[in-house]
């Protein structure tokens, strides 16, 4: 057992900002990182669902051609083109049936789209779940050094925005951008072959100008979105930091200061938001001019041919006008889709940076389990530094035999907390070795090493859950009897039974509903339940009344 008065050891502060170029630079690399999450390799039903959705998507492209064609047939039949007008009920039935499947001319509310969207829900949930769990697992695998240099609120914001962007990115690319591009190509080919090449040329030029304007202006707008994200991260981080430490804010009467600080962060965000929104309206205005110019040119040509070319009928004009209007409706949103894809890629940048963070502390390939430890600890000429040229420990050594107790005392900043962190292998030593039962801790699997060590910190922070959950965190599968027995040994059981909900009482954020002594007793009960081979005490009874300290010292022994 080691008794330590821990002092907070500050590592390198701040996080490096990463310079970024265009949002499309490295976008294919990002897509490759997403591939493991996009195809449900372990689920055949989901794979079939994905294939079915793509089949419906292809069928919708065919419908977009057939609907205007049958509209032309109806107009020509009713107008008596090439003969007497006739009641074309069969065309009307087919046309209405196609519209039911297509929906509103754009597929937005059509039967095919609704079936596809319903089937895609499971795939969306799969992707979101895999990404979130993977990122969460990765964050838990990063070192203490990394977590000490990041703000929790900022990390959570990056997670929220990044995971939400993945599904949106898939939605926009697979079900908006690709179908629209396919419809444009089909329209150019159809009108060039069925009408004449001038129609295909008008559509091609209009589409090319539209896409060029959209890409150029959206690339220019990207800088505003990035600045918005930085301001948004700062706003979230300030809010979380202030609310977590609200008690300190109250102690120093800094409520107005925190509100003003938060308001300033909102103003900074809104300043960048205004630039982004204004540039978006400029983009949509230019897009509308390009689209309607193409529509005007094509409509005038179709009207002229209808009057001057016997091959062209009123139905042909209606076909062109309805087809192009049908095509332009989703195309009018193409800029929005492109902008959203840009935003999604930008929103995912920080998430990919988190995923790219390398783990400082990793298990060796041949690392072994710490099984039935005897209880020997040795620090053998250990040297360690948080930052270069600033040694926290220099050739430090001690040995603790099984069943023995070692007390380490010293001034704040003397390296006592560092000793505990090195034993837990939160960091690796710079020189020397930390040995457990004569084996370097780097040769053990981290999980088995930490399972053998228990710690009662001076400053206890509890989960915002029940008392039972916090105690049983020391042994996840503990029974109710074991939990209460540990609480009795920590002399907290009777107090818990006075609470309205007993062991199911919520302790609040960071355990703030409990007093300092009650929190420390819960931490003691949690460690007792874990029953570790090695026990580290950081002034574990500092929050208890003096008469109770001797009782708990006996309990630890």
TrEMBL record:
<dbReference type="GO" id="GO:0016887">
    <property type="term" value="F:ATP hydrolysis activity"/>
</dbReference>
<feature type="transmembrane region" description="Helical">
    <location>
        <begin position="317"/>
        <end position="338"/>
    </location>
</feature>
<feature type="domain" description="ABC transmembrane type-1">
    <location>
        <begin position="51"/>
        <end position="343"/>
    </location>
</feature>
<feature type="transmembrane region" description="Helical">
    <location>
        <begin position="169"/>
        <end position="191"/>
    </location>
</feature>
<feature type="transmembrane region" description="Helical">
    <location>
        <begin position="280"/>
        <end position="305"/>
    </location>
</feature>
<keyword id="KW-0547">Nucleotide-binding</keyword>
<keyword id="KW-1133">Transmembrane helix</keyword>
<dbReference type="Pfam" id="PF00005">
    <property type="entry name" value="ABC_tran"/>
</dbReference>
<feature type="transmembrane region" description="Helical">
    <location>
        <begin position="197"/>
        <end position="218"/>
    </location>
</feature>
<dbReference type="InterPro" id="IPR017871">
    <property type="entry name" value="ABC_transporter-like_CS"/>
</dbReference>
<dbReference type="Pfam" id="PF00664">
    <property type="entry name" value="ABC_membrane"/>
</dbReference>
<dbReference type="InterPro" id="IPR039421">
    <property type="entry name" value="Type_1_exporter"/>
</dbReference>
<comment type="similarity">
    <text>Belongs to the ABC transporter superfamily. ABCB family. Heavy Metal importer (TC 3.A.1.210) subfamily.</text>
</comment>
<dbReference type="InterPro" id="IPR011527">
    <property type="entry name" value="ABC1_TM_dom"/>
</dbReference>
<dbReference type="GO" id="GO:0005524">
    <property type="term" value="F:ATP binding"/>
</dbReference>
<feature type="transmembrane region" description="Helical">
    <location>
        <begin position="44"/>
        <end position="63"/>
    </location>
</feature>
<feature type="domain" description="ABC transporter">
    <location>
        <begin position="377"/>
        <end position="557"/>
    </location>
</feature>
<keyword id="KW-0067">ATP-binding</keyword>
<dbReference type="InterPro" id="IPR027417">
    <property type="entry name" value="P-loop_NTPase"/>
</dbReference>
<dbReference type="InterPro" id="IPR003593">
    <property type="entry name" value="AAA+_ATPase"/>
</dbReference>
<keyword id="KW-0472">Membrane</keyword>
<dbReference type="GO" id="GO:0015439">
    <property type="term" value="F:ABC-type heme transporter activity"/>
</dbReference>
<dbReference type="InterPro" id="IPR036640">
    <property type="entry name" value="ABC1_TM_sf"/>
</dbReference>
<dbReference type="GO" id="GO:0005774">
    <property type="term" value="C:vacuolar membrane"/>
</dbReference>
<protein>
    <recommendedName>
        <fullName>ATP-binding cassette sub-family B member 6, mitochondrial</fullName>
    </recommendedName>
</protein>
<keyword id="KW-0812">Transmembrane</keyword>
<dbReference type="GO" id="GO:0020037">
    <property type="term" value="F:heme binding"/>
</dbReference>
<dbReference type="InterPro" id="IPR003439">
    <property type="entry name" value="ABC_transporter-like_ATP-bd"/>
</dbReference>
